[in-house]
């Protein structure tokens, strides 16, 4: 072994120690993030008599049961609530991304009077908490006959998500070189055709990331759903989950089972869109 190799040996060992420390830290963070979901699943299949046993059992027992899953569908309208949430969340995310894409493209590519003011208003609209606008929106929706209506709930979500989605997509459009669109225009394509054939396919990661963001917000939202929806047949999953909490007794195994079922659709969508989401989170951060 040469003198240089001997001198470099301590630094190589130090590098391996740092790599091991980083790996252990990452594993600890992943365990910390995943454990609540693991505990939710374990609790949902645990017999009722073991829910409050001490010390708590980390691993599922041999007598694990799935009775809570059949019970939540038999004793509630969870399937209907899931369908209501699917309609509201997908409708909200689709409309929000479509409208925001057109608005963000106009802000990114055109100069017009009031552009700066429009961008400032979009940012300002995100500074107001939802509870501040809940009562005025309730009065307006009541006058328009949109209370206890899934379409009205979708409209309420769009009022908050379109400004956010527009801000997000503008960053993605800014990162696309205008020269690509100019080449298409020179070849005879219209501005609208260039937008749909060139710009949108190139911004697919941003569109997917924004769609997933809007979908999750609309899926989990509770405040406006609680205010605008009264009839149980129009409840979304967030309202349905809260109904499992009783006045005197809360069946935690059923609550956790319902939480698992409610989490699955969003998790499945995330698995399909995760590759676009990772690209989309960084694509809008670079201009040009």
Write the layout of secondary structure elements.
Elements: H1 3-44, H2 67-75, H3 78-109, H4 115-125, H5 130-144, H6 150-174, H7 178-186, H8 191-202, H9 204-220, H10 223-228, H11 237-242, H12 252-283
Folded structure, characterized:
By secondary structure, this protein is mostly helical. It folds into 2 domains: 35-65, no CATH class; 75-283, MetI-like (MetI-like fold), CATH 1.10.3720. 75% of the residues lie in helices and 0% in strands. It has helices at 3-44, 67-75, 78-109, 115-125, 130-144, 150-174, 178-186, 191-202, 204-220, 223-228, 237-242, 252-283. The longest helix has 42 residues, at 3-44. 26% of the residues are buried.
Q: What's the story with the biggest beta sheet? A: none
Output the CATH class name of the largest domain: Mainly Alpha
- Report the average pLDDT across residues: 83
Q: What is the end-to-end distance?
A: 50 Å
So, CATH architecture of the largest domain? Orthogonal Bundle
Helix content: over 70%
CATH superfamily of the largest domain: MetI-like
Strand/helix succession = HHHHHHHHHHHH
Counting H and I runs of at least 4 residues, what is the number of helices? 12
Number of domains: 2
Strand content: under 5%
- Would you count the extended β strands for me? 0
What integer value in Å does the Rg equal?
Answer: 25 Å
Approximate shape:
globular
CATH topology of the largest domain: MetI-like fold
Poorly predicted segments: 284-288
Q: What is the structural class?
A: mainly alpha
